Amino acid sequence: MDTEHVFRILPEEAGIRADRYLAEHLPGYSRSYLQSLMEKQRLTIDGKPAKAGRKLRAGEMMGISVPEPEEPEVLPEEIPLSILYEDDALLVVDKPKGMAVHPAPGHPDGTLVNALLAHCRGSLSGINGVLRPGIVHRIDKDTTGALIVCKTDEAHRSIAAQLEVHSITRRYLGIVTGVPEETEGTVTGNIGRDPKDRKKMAVVREGGKPAVTHYRVLEVFRGFALCEFELETGRTHQIRVHMASRRHPLLGDAVYGGANSRYPLEGQTLHAMVIGFVHPVTGAYMEFRAPLPDYFEQLLKKLRRESGA
Asked: What is the helix (H) or strand (E) element at residue 62, kind and residue range?
């Protein structure tokens, strides 16, 4: 079944090209994919077929019909995994930097899911479909550290319920640019799509989802600080967005303002260090710690030397 997206053009939006408007308002689809739909005459304005370059007028109703996606086959790949714990219900993996959690446009293979399919030989929860088997929560591609993967649907439901009520322990280590004035604190603010750039998230005044991040400064360097973060909620890019909102973006985060040419890094310096949860079968609380990756350890040594520590 097709999905119909319909928009009424506001006065301040008049004059914008239809393709640009849709790219900004439908960030879940690539611009090239949207253009291919327009070429197939799936774009209408006031009920009539329209072209991608058509400039919009206030009050018009624009719609685009998106066909049901065909989920591609995800194949197992023999990719080494660092496993912190495993039993018949779940496993806890230490995800490396640069590995996406599940297939998506731009990285159809080489993901954690591809590796899990090979390691678990099909024994993964199916609640999130063929693209995300076993995946109950995620961390960003360039964030390293501990991640729970569920083998059974029962385990998946249990962990998802714990995430829903914020009872799972999640502590991160990260290096921020600048030094926070307070050595510890809490950052709050709803997180949603950045109204100025739909590809990014932001702290928003209207809409979004509530988000709470606790932080503590562990070590101070010249122009940077090592912080521990504890999440109450788990929104997309939460730590990255919250710290950027305080003008202390994570070092290496080119998306939210933490890029630094002195330290050539592949994305943000953020590590999911500790994860703790109640086991879905035994009912016992379990906690696991992922060791800091080598790049993070080496960067800390360099910052200490430069600060005279």
From this structure: strand 61-66
